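Subject: Sanity check before I submit

Could someone independently write out the structure tokens for this chain? I want to compare against mine line by line before I put it in a report. The sequence has 243 residues.
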Amino acid sequence: MRFLHERTCSNQNFLLPIQILWKRVVFERLLYVIVGAFLALAIVKLNYEQAKPVTELIGPVATEKRPIKLFCWIATMPPNHETKAVHIKATWAPRCDRYMFMSSVNSTDLPAIAAVQKEGRQFLWQKTAFALNYVWTHFGEDFDFFYKADDDTYALIDNMRLLLANHDPSIPAIIGKVHQYVVKQGYADGGAGYVMSRAALRLFVHGMKNTSMCYNETHSEFEDMKVGKLIHVSPHSRTTLHH
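---
Independent answer below. Compare away.
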């Protein structure tokens, strides 16, 4: 009995360090979880502060400007309606005063207009020409600026409004990331999108009636270069919009 008692005590003494070590491991893991949670919250808060649009950071400056009426149209295609276009509709598009998608089929859900009968890069200019004419015909007099984007574009509309508040919509201007090659006077990159003032859109649409100049390339995949060739604006009327 004495031997068994000593053996039992010896086993308990042996297990004691293991129990202490196990408790320490559990404590350390809980500590890691708690610290990690606080760090995650801090990072999320930091990212939110950094991602705030300029209008939130300097609101009083923005409120001094007159309200901007912005129309946004987004080029898309049927396969992207449920994979790309819906996410634009759920995020930045509602920050425009009105928006519309240009596709090859009509959709009341997006909403989308059938701008072309077939999809493909060779039909980009045809889609753009239709869109600009359609937007001007139906909404031209009701908005100050018109933003063109693709369905893989994410736009900070609040920041865009702040920038546009410094521009007069009655002055012809196209605003975007300007490339100075290929097109002599430069052109606004279509990937990031570009903004046309009301006056610029009006002149552009009326100019497209000159079919000898504007429709000599019905099928063109470089719609942004085509717009640059046709806009024929002076250098001071093109602005680089940093993004």
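---
OP: Matches mine. For the report I'm noting this point. The radius of gyration is 29 Å.
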